[in-house]
Amino acid sequence: MNVETALQRLKEKGYKRTKQRERIVEIFVQQDQYIAAKDILKTIQEDFPGVSYDTIYRNLYLLTEEEILEATELGGEKHFRLGCETHGHHHHFICTTCGKTKSIEFCPMNSINENLKGYDIENHKFEIYGKCPQCH
């Protein structure tokens, strides 16, 4: 996804194009990894010194709700990344050093379901954490 595609998706949903939103999306397009909200704030404040943490968080959650970004929790803190180009159901390996991700096409839920007979599973999230080849 590129900046224009993301901003067009927001426009179609009735959201305004703002310079701050545009800059947030640019940051994610430039980096293929999960990024902590505090790091986004630090980068944004270089261009918009008065921007607040609340403004950044509101925009990150809006972008996540509109499926432009994906969110996960790393080290007890919310991290975000540009939505994955892989279509359909999939999971990720996430490097705990650099935050880069790799899509995993296999879903372990089939074998897990065998152990949960009688349970009504509504949703799941499966991520693998470790070091990528560059950080290992």
Structure described in brief:
The protein is α+β, with helices and mostly antiparallel strands.
Report what the structure shows.
With 136 residues, the protein is an alpha+beta fold. It folds into 2 domains: 3-82, Arc Repressor Mutant, subunit A (Orthogonal Bundle); 91-130, Dna Ligase, domain 1. Helices cover 39% and strands 20% of the residues. It has 5 helices and 6 strands; from the N terminus they run ααβααββββαβ. The strands form 2 sheets. Strands 1-3-2 form a 3-stranded antiparallel sheet. A 3-stranded mixed sheet has the order 5-4-6, with no helix packed on it. A hairpin with a 5-residue loop joins strand 4 and strand 5. Helix 3 (37-47) packs across helix 4. The two termini are 29 Å apart. The relative contact order is 0.14.
The CATH C-level class name of the largest domain: Mainly Alpha
Shape: globular
Number of structurally distinct domains: 2
User: What is the fourth-level CATH superfamily of the largest domain?
Assistant: Winged helix-like DNA-binding domain superfamily/Winged helix DNA-binding domain
CATH topology of the largest domain: Arc Repressor Mutant, subunit A
Structural class: alpha+beta
Q: How does the major sheet shape up?
A: 3 strands, antiparallel
> Distance between termini?
29 Å
Mean pLDDT: 87
Could you give the count of β-strands? 6
Order of strands side by side in the largest beta sheet?
A: 1-3-2
Which range does the strand content fall in?
15-25%
Binding site for Zn(2+): 95, 98, 132, 135
GO biological process, one term: negative regulation of DNA-templated transcription
Subcellular location: Cytoplasm
Protein name: Fur family transcription regulator
